[in-house]
Amino acid sequence: MIAVNWNTQEDMTNMFWRQNISQMWVETEFKVSKDIASWKTLSEAEQDTFKKALAGLTGLDTHQADDGMPLVMLHTTDLRKKAVYSFMAMMEQIHAKSYSHIFTTLLPSSETNYLLDEWVLEEPHLKYKSDKIVANYHKLWGKEASIYDQYMARVTSVFLETFLFFSGFYYPLYLAGQGKMTTSGEIIRKILLDESIHGVFTGLDAQHLRNELSESEKQKADQEMYKLLNDLYLNEESYTKMLYDDLGITEDVLNYVKYNGNKALSNLGFEPYFEEREFNPNH
């Protein structure tokens, strides 16, 4: 029998719990029907990019809710931190459901089923992302997991939440900045705020674990981290071109992705890696 004690001296965990709770929301608070008129004004290419961006985001949130947070939580010894991870996992489920909330309003069910049951599973860039991410998460299966693997799982989690989501976030925010699809944009902004705090909390937790690694393990972890970052970015570059080339905004999206890649590194206690350039200020 164990029992969490929230009456111990306050630290960052208490603050992150309160912040997560204060941000709680559910998708039914947003009436996506307000976006129907705007949706009908979008070109076929714009609609295609929008729905595929959201479908890809659904896949990432599903993996984070079902694999990432639960497995990180499994080996977290501080019961208050475990509670924070548990709450964040629940919010990932709300994020995943919110995309279906948008699809239900805008698309026929047959098209939603195709996007989420077929396209996401078969799209090679998404498969590459999920394979890379889940491989590090699944090292935490079982009763024993090394500090090294626990650390790298958190690195992977930060990359997912502070880096990989943003090629998908870009387009709904871009449209909302033009006064289009504004309710969908509000949902994405809510999700973005959640992912931001998730990345900061997990990054700080990762930094604490890194202090438990030996010097040789730190060197190995850093090499693995930068290789993972590069591999994911190259895939993200190709995925972004696939999604956005027809709209002529690929370069701006990639600048946004690089900016958030540097934020992910900052959450983990590292200096920027990518050269940063200006991107659409609506983000």
Outline the structure in words.
By secondary structure, this protein is an all-alpha fold. The chain has a single domain (34-267), classed as Ribonucleotide Reductase, subunit A, CATH 1.10.620.20. The protein is 75% helix and 0% strand. It contains eleven helices and no strands. It has helices at 12-22, 36-41, 44-74, 79-106, 109-122, 124-137, 147-164, 166-177, 182-210, 215-244, 250-267. α1 runs parallel beside α4 (79-106), α3 packs across α8 and α4 packs antiparallel against α9 (182-210). The chain starts with 11 loop residues before the first helix and ends in a 16-residue tail after the last helix. The model has no long low-confidence stretch (mean pLDDT 96).
Which structural traits does this protein have?
mainly alpha; Ribonucleotide Reductase, subunit A; 11 helices; globular
What is the N-to-C order of secondary-structure elements (H for helix, E for strand)? HHHHHHHHHHH
Helical amount: over 70%
Mean pLDDT: 96
Total helical segments: 11
Named CATH architecture: Orthogonal Bundle
Count of beta strands: 0
The first-level CATH class name: Mainly Alpha
Runs in which pLDDT lies below 50 for 5 or more consecutive residues are none
Specify Rg, calculated over alpha carbons.
Answer: 19 Å
Overall structural class, as computed from helix and strand content, comes to mainly alpha
Q: How many separate structural domains?
A: 1
Sheet with most strands:
none
Tell me the span between the first and last alpha carbons.
47 Å
Instruction: Write the CATH homologous superfamily.
Output: Ribonucleotide Reductase, subunit A
Identify the overall geometry: globular
- Fraction in beta strands: under 5%
Q: What is the CATH topology assignment?
A: Ribonucleotide Reductase, subunit A
